[in-house]
Specification:
single chain, mainly alpha, 0% strand
């Protein structure tokens, strides 16, 4: 996350071109996690991450 926040305009544009998880994204995958973190902080909550892989 720290790296994504430190991207300059050109680096961010290049990263954005590579990050397509949704064919019609409503928000950038560079911005979504930060939005979630800020919303949790405003609500006085923490965050929990989970990742799993199913074959």
């Amino acid at each position: 996350m720290e790296r994504a926040l430190g991207l300059g305009p050109q680096e961010r544009a290049r990263a954005q071109e590579q990050l397509r998880l949704d064919p019609e994204p409503r928000e950038s995958v560079l911005d979504g996690p930060l939005r979630a973190w800020r919303a949790a902080a405003r609500a006085g909550l923490g965050l929990c991450g989970l990742a799993f892989h199913v074959d």
